[in-house]
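User: I want to check something. If I give you two sequences, will you return the structure for each one separately, not as a complex?

Assistant: Yes, each is folded on its own. Here is the first sequence with its structure:
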Amino acid sequence: MPKVSTYNIAGAQTGEIELNDSVFGVEVNEAVVRQAVLRQLANERLGTHSTKTRGLVRGGGRKPWKQKGTGRARCGSTRSPLWVGGGTVWGPHPRSYEQKMPRKARRLAVKSALSDKVNTNELFVLDEINLAAPKTKEVVQIVNNFKFAGEKVLFVTDHDEIVTRCARNIEGVKAVSTENINIFDLLHYTKLFVTKSAVAKIEEVLG
């Protein structure tokens, strides 16, 4: 089982913790991680883009000029795609970009990302996060205590709404609860802080 150090919010080491090998010690599967990232980004697309075909554009009911004898090309409608203001050919229409992925594969992607954080020493386990006051500067102080100013930092807690709100206005910092962990955040943020209670919850769900 992988072992990592535990810290308090002041940045001082307080001990060690053994992590579940089936969650934090799996072999990184890059193919599954890539598929999971693409799925998440695709599912976030709204797909509300739309264009009008010649049948949807207003106007064009009367034939502009007679078929023969004018010397001009024959034309049946001013809403033809060839005309300015006409319809659009092969334009986008509302659709869903949703991609399916097996639950086991999605969980393997998250496990791979967590294991990679352990392998690269970018996962830090905090005993708990006790803020002196529900203020943004308290979370900034935690980041500064670890000398991670300017880094992209992700906090994972077990339903700590105060930390989530306090980290909301800090550029490059985000806080989520255990059920909102996703593959994109794990890859996007370089430093990962997880509380002991969150570690237990993650191991319970993914183990």
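And separately, the second sequence with its own structure:
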Amino acid sequence: MSVTSRYKDAWEGFWNEAPDETGAVFWDAEPALTAGPHLALFEPHLTDLALPMVDLGCGNGTQTRFLADRYDSVVGVDLSPAAVERARSQDPDGRARFDQLDATDEKAVQELHTRLGDANVYVRGVLHQCEPADRQPLADAVATLVGTRGRALLVELAEAAKPVLMGLAQDPAGAPPKLRPVFAHGLTPGEVADAAVPALLGAAGLTVVARGELPLTTTEYRPDGTRIALPSKWWVVGRTG
């Protein structure tokens, strides 16, 4: 299967219209506040640091470039060709490789695994953006990419993030400027139940080896000047049998 054209078009429209400036996208926080803390949770559970690192749902590549400073082989993949083109343009030194990938396309995911071999996989805020029918295929894609030796870290908004987002969107003063395009393009963050994530991963043949909670920092601020951070949960998974 593959994602619906509506869903793909929504992301393509979002990335075509998103400003180029650093931090202009709601979730595009600096790596010191995102991928950095995530790696501190992830690396103790990696069984092979030499495996390629895949940033699944890389967007404009901010976190991918950070990963490329720490691992020899890093590939960022995203559903949106516009996102991939932007990621490439912001990586003139070619520290990472960027490719368009529909992660619900089983054949395309298998081809990527054939090219890379087993990989470690970083997934930040992708599953909770998926439409319901695409969630299990995405979990299956993670399982294909890690193979038998890799591990994956998934960081997803918790259920508790949805009322926070809805509160921001319905504020009488209007939604924060960086959040408005998310809803304007029909993207629906925070739609996955907390218990659904490990269930999806288990159905894909993956075992949870570590889990926890950590606020997911955004680039937006409240009127009082405090940075908006959303409740999130994280899971490290792999094949342990």
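Because they were folded independently, the notes below concern the second chain alone. The mean pLDDT is 92. The CA atoms of residues 55 and 122 lie 5 Å apart.
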